[in-house]
């Protein structure tokens, strides 16, 4: 048992820190730190900076232009980038589709799409969920019917995150109604500019339009956009989900959220003294910090096992539940900390360069929005109820 | 022992529930927050005509209610509908303070309030958080009248108010209960500025700046420097109102969630058939019943001595805050993605219920206060 990093790992951390000091634009880290709205251009700018260094394909092997890092290096990179308030890496092309194409895509698909993900030519979004297929993903109804050299796709996808920025969408579609629901699903790549594709924003309870509905009406998709074999899409979809669950614990996000909470609790006054000195508040803050310290180690245990070559299993479900519960608790405490200033909703103040002043401290509205927005953490990527089901089957064998 | 409503209150509840059910729509609520008034003028005049504002005042003040259970009945229905009319700001707080402390001339304004005129209560200040005695705004003698200087924050319905009941210090230090006075100030007074904005969970508020606002001698409400007990009592009544509103919101959220559990199918069956979800919804129901009992406790002790009353204020507000968080978070979780959307009815109700903990003191504030009052 040794809880310290090796000298190589420490040197790697220094290298990442030096890079962030030098290359992360203050304009971007300020926006992330203060909860301002990030634009498509902001994400693209950060992707390009990482790509120039060869650090955008964090989870990719070197042969495809990735970093080739092991699980511990990826973890260190994640810790340092979140601590520095870098924008997150948009995961749809990099963490989701990329690995699927590397494992199941044709040589042509790999050669065409993977470089375009790295150089920013394509912005991908995810076409998995449907109004009737949430936790029960195999219930997808969107159909793809083969007609000559094309599929004709009809249906509706939903909760498509940042789909408003996307050029391409990877979709689960039904190509057969025979057998079990899982057996008739195919994995299709669709150009968002094809006639019949319509994106409609969904405003969430934080007032932001982060997700979308994507309507597909008689959309013609060339057959070469099929990944792997027809009706084998479920296998690829599941493989993608194991990558979606990379960094599922969100320790880095939890750490920066906790740091933000501490900062706010020092600034806010309750009964004439800083809120952080109020024993009732301090107790709750300490409680969540203690939980996070243990969870961070659970996360490291999983990472160490992965670095030693063990395949990830149901422990990612454990990390997902514990990680999201802790982050949501930090968000709730932060909302509580801002007191009456949780009420004003002056949304314009979140735009870069806006001349609209926030009401009360500038951290108040982002705190409220983060609380509402992060209710999604326990819902998406397989709800926490589904994760509990996985644990009871796979670990407890109940 | 009798937990039935009186016949009058039962009638009020029935007619109000019917009226709000027929009148309030999600579009109406969304438009109300966007509108200049910051609430629905249709709904507000409807409530005034029905006598709902009058139900907040005693007969001697020109109303026909005014007791804790009158507040509880009215605000549970308001919450059930997700409405955000200026009933607390104008009726319970500003109007209530005029009725309790005002001169005969000032009390004449109560009749206008009952008829639908809107008053605001400009009391909270930056840095006060939830402390009622934190007043930095000053009122100094100015010839025959007074000169008011200071800043009031998150003044609900400020943009719609004809006049404000303003608290200001005529003596003592920032956090002293002694030395606070109340003044009636017209909204269009010179050197009074309002920055108006929308609120999370619906409605609007404003930052009210008083930059040497002059008012005449008769603007003073009640005795000079002795307003704190009246402010505390008005806040107790407002807390009763908002806790009842929270209860109504919880009931509506529970209804939506149970319906959804029955309708939404995944894995070939309604999700309400899954035992894990059944148990969680059962816990929600138990806690909402706790919330109802807490509201009854507070409503039934509003007219008792100060310490007893305030212990119930803090006990009820603490419990409501805890249950509100549970109800909101479980309802969103049990709905899944649809519960996160602005468009679906749950979104507004969940946000409004969450914001209850940011008004009149949060869960921790009242826990600490309850302990202090219990030791007294």
From TrEMBL, chain A:
InterPro entries attached to this UniProt entry: Acyl-CoA_Oxase/DH_mid-dom, Acyl-CoA_Oxase/DH_mid-dom_sf, AcylCo_DH-like_C, AcylCo_DH/oxidase_C, AcylCoA_DH/ox_N, AcylCoA_DH/ox_N_sf, AcylCoA_DH/oxidase_NM_dom_sf, Mycobact_Acyl-CoA_DH
Acyl-CoA oxidase/dehydrogenase middle domain residues: 125-202
Pfam families, per database record: Acyl-CoA_dh_1, Acyl-CoA_dh_M, Acyl-CoA_dh_N
Domain called Acyl-CoA dehydrogenase/oxidase N-terminal: residue spans: 6-121
All residue ranges annotated as the Acyl-CoA dehydrogenase/oxidase C-terminal domain in the record: 231-396
Family: Belongs to the acyl-CoA dehydrogenase family.
Protein's recorded name: Acyl-CoA dehydrogenase
The organism of origin for this protein: Tranquillimonas alkanivorans
From TrEMBL, chain B:
Keyword Oxidoreductase in record: yes
Acyl-CoA dehydrogenase/oxidase N-terminal domain boundaries: 6-109
Domain Acyl-CoA dehydrogenase/oxidase C-terminal: 234-367
Pfam family, one: Acyl-CoA_dh_1
Tree of life domain: Bacteria
InterPro entries hit by this protein: Acyl-CoA_Oxase/DH_mid-dom, Acyl-CoA_Oxase/DH_mid-dom_sf, AcylCo_DH-like_C, AcylCo_DH/oxidase_C, AcylCoA_DH/ox_N, AcylCoA_DH/ox_N_sf, AcylCoA_DH/oxidase_NM_dom_sf
Cofactor: FAD
Tagged with keyword Cell membrane: no
Annotated family: Belongs to the acyl-CoA dehydrogenase family.
The protein's name: Acyl-CoA dehydrogenase
Organism of provenance: Tranquillimonas alkanivorans
Native organism taxonomy: Bacteria, Pseudomonadati, Pseudomonadota, Alphaproteobacteria, Rhodobacterales
């Amino acid at each position: 048992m040794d809880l310290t990093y090796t000298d190589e790992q420490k040197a790697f951390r220094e290298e990442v820190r030096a890079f962030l000091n030098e290359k992360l634009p203050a304009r971007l880290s300020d926006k992330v730190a203060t909860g301002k709205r990030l634009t498509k251009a902001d994400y693209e700018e950060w992707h390009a900076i990482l790509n120039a260094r060869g650090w955008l394909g964090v989870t990719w092997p070197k042969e495809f232009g990735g970093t080739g890092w092991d699980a511990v290096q990826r973890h260190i990179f994640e810790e340092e980038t979140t601590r520095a308030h870098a924008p997150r890496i948009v995961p749809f092309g990099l963490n989701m589709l990329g690995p699927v194409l590397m494992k199941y895509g044709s040589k042509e698909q790999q050669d065409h799409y993977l470089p375009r993900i790295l150089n920013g030519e394509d912005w991908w979004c995810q076409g998995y969920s449907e109004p009737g297929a949430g936790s029960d993903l195999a219930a997808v109804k969107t159909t793809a019917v083969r007609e000559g050299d094309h599929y004709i796709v009809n249906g509706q996808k939903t909760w498509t995150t940042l789909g408003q920025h996307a050029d391409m969408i990877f979709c689960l579609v039904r190509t057969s109604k025979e057998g079990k629901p899982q057996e008739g699903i195919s994995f299709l790549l669709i150009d968002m500019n094809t006639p019949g594709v319509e994106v409609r924003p969904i405003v969430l309870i934080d007032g932001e339009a982060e997700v979308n509905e994507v309507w597909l009406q008689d959309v013609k998709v060339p057959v070469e956009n099929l990944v792997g074999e027809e009706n084998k899409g479920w296998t690829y979809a599941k493989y993608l989900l194991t990558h979606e669950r990379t960094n599922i614990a969100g320790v880095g996000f939890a750490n920066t959220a906790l740091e933000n909470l501490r900062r706010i609790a020092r600034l806010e006054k309750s009964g004439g003294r800083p809120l952080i000195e109020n024993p009732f508040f301090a107790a709750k803050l300490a409680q969540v910090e203690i939980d996070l310290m243990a969870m961070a180690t659970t996360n490291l245990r999983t990472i160490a096992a992965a670095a030693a070559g063990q395949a990830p299993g149901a422990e990612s479900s454990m990390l997902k539940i514990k990680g999201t519960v802790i982050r949501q608790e930090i968000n709730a405490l932060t909302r509580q900390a801002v007191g009456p200033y949780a009420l004003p909703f002056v949304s314009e103040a979140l735009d870069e360069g806006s001349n609209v002043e926030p009401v009360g401290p500038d951290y108040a509205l982002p705190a409220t929005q983060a609380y509402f927005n992060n209710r999604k953490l326990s819902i998406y990527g397989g709800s926490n109820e589904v994760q509990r089901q996985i644990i009871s089957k796979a670990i407890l064998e109940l | 022992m009798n937990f039935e409503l009186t016949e009058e209150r039962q009638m009020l509840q029935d007619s109000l529930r019917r009226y709000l059910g027929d009148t309030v729509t999600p579009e109406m609520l969304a438009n109300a927050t966007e509108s200049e008034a910051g609430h629905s003028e249709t709904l507000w005049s409807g409530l005034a005509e029905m006598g709902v504002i009058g139900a907040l005042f005693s007969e001697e003040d020109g109303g026909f209610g005014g007791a804790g259970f009158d507040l509880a009945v009215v605000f549970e229905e308001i919450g059930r509908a997700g409405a955000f009319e200026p009933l607390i700001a104008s009726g319970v707080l500003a109007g209530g303070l005029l009725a309790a402390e005002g001169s005969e001339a000032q009390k004449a304004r109560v009749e206008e309030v009952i008829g639908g005129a809107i008053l605001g209560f400009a009391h909270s200040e930056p840095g006060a958080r939830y402390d009622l005695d934190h007043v930095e705004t000053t009122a100094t003698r100015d010839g025959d009248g007074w000169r008011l200087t200071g800043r009031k924050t998150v003044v609900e319905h400020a943009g719609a108010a004809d006049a404000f009941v303003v608290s200001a210090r005529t003596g003592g230090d920032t956090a002293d209960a002694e030395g606070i006075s109340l003044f009636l100030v017209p909204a269009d007074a010179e050197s009074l500025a309002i920055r108006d904005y929308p609120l999370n969970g619906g409605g609007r508020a404003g930052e009210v700046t008083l930059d040497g606002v002059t008012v005449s001698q008769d603007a003073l409400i009640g005795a000079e420097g002795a307003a704190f007990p009246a402010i505390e009592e008005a806040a107790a009544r407002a807390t009763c109102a908002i806790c009842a509103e929270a209860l109504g919101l919880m009931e509506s959220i529970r209804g939506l969630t149970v319906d959804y559990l029955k309708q939404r199918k995944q894995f070939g069956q309604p999700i309400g058939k899954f035992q894990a979800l059944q148990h969680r919804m059962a816990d929600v129901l138990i806690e909402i019943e706790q919330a109802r009992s807490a509201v009854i406790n507070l409503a039934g002790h509003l007219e008792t001595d100060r310490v007893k009353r305030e212990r119930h204020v803090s006990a009820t507000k603490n419990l409501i805050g805890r249950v509100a968080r549970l109800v909101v978070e479980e309802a969103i979780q049990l709905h899944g993605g649809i519960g996160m959307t602005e468009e679906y009815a749950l979104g507004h109700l969940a946000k409004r219920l969450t914001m209850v903990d940011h008004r009149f003191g949060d869960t921790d504030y009242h826990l600490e206060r309850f302990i202090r009052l219990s030791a007294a």
